[in-house]
Design brief:
The chain is built from seven helices and six strands; from the N terminus they run βααβαβαβαββαα. By secondary structure, it is α/β, with parallel strands linked by helices. The longest helix has 23 residues.
Length: 175
């Protein structure tokens, strides 16, 4: 099975070219090192509707197995990535952000302030990572191995992503 992924960075400054995104490329590199094929990357503003549209595009149109987001998970009024993820997900996956927060808490008590979420939309897993490169890498390292197994179960091991997506569009129920 092909493990396909998209990486989306939420950053007002990054999307305007005012800040260089280091988290997105670091996440892409870690995914590639772990056998993932990164099909799509983008940097978008911290805007609820824009984030929702981007997540839907990655899940429904591109049909990637995994969407990793970075940024927008803190307490700033513009941090709405978890809310946008929740709005487009069919089902929550609480264990992934719990594991990431547990790992972060071992490093800094500030880890408890992450509002990151994870959820399923059809055959796609969406996972929110923090915006800082260091924290994003630490959180991804904590969950990257079990995520592959989750994708195998979600997609059915004998199917590739495109076949599963085609069946979903035809109205077949999986699971």
């Amino acid at each position: 099975m092909e493990y396909t992924a998209a990486v989306i960075t939420m950053s007002d400054k990054g999307s305007q070219g005012l800040r260089t995104d280091t988290s997105g490329p670091a996440v892409c590199e870690m995914l590639k090192e772990n056998g993932w094929q990164v099909m799509y990357t983008s940097i978008i503003p911290d805007d609820f509707e824009t984030i929702k549209e981007e997540l839907i595009k990655c899940a429904d149109d591109l049909s990637v197995c995994l969407v990793m987001t970075t940024g927008g998970t803190g307490f700033s009024p513009r941090d709405v990535t978890p809310e946008a993820t929740h709005a487009v997900a069919d089902r929550e996956v609480r264990g992934i952000p719990e594991a990431m927060r547990a790992e972060s808490m071992r490093i800094t008590p500030m880890g408890m302030l992450s509002r990151a979420e994870a959820g399923l939309r059809g055959g796609t897993l969406i996972v929110n990572l923090p915006g800082s490169e260091k924290a994003a890498k630490e959180c991804l390292a904590a969950v990257i191995k079990p995520i592959k197994h989750g994708i195998d179960v979600l997609r059915g091991q004998s199917h590739d992503c495109a076949q599963m997506h085609k069946k979903d569009k035809e109205g077949h129920h999986h699971g």
